[in-house]
Amino acid sequence: MTNSQSKTTPSSDGPRTVPSRVIVPVIGLERFKHGALERGQYLTVKLRADPTDSASVTHDFAVPFFRDGSPEEWLLFRKNLRRVFRGQNLTNGPSQYQMARSLLEGETLSFFDTKATAYLNETVDNM
């Protein structure tokens, strides 16, 4: 009796049965695209090319608010958040927590605040 999910593959010894398993990726193979963001769906922040130099060139960076979404959307949000931390030279915990709170919405913000309260200290290590 063979597995209904098995398939026959050729080999030098003759055909053999190899189980074929369907693995569903956590993050889909199609890339997430934001599309056009409308006013009120993002926060525009000024980032510096050299965050420690107040005379360095600045550029605007639009960061979409995060309410809920797929794991890929969360990873993209975290990437953008780290970029904001670097570009605005947010090196201490309280400033990073404040920026995160300004970009999170809804249940995600509530969950973030609950976890932040549980840690007691707003430090970079707890971020």
Shape: extended
Our count of helices gives 3
| Widest β-sheet, arrangement of strands | 1-2
| Quaternary | single chain
Q: What number is the mean pLDDT? A: 82
Could you tell me the radius of gyration in angstroms?
Answer: 23 Å
Question: Main sheet?
Answer: 2 strands, antiparallel
What percent of residues are in strands?
15-25%
Total beta strand runs: 4
Instruction: Catalogue the unreliable spans.
Output: none
Structural class, from secondary structure content?
A: alpha+beta
What would your notes on this structure say?
This protein has 127 residues and is of the alpha+beta class. It has one domain. It is 33% helix and 17% strand. It is built from 3 helices and 4 strands; from the N terminus they run E-E-E-E-H-H-H. Strand 1 (6-9) and strand 2 (16-19) form a beta hairpin.
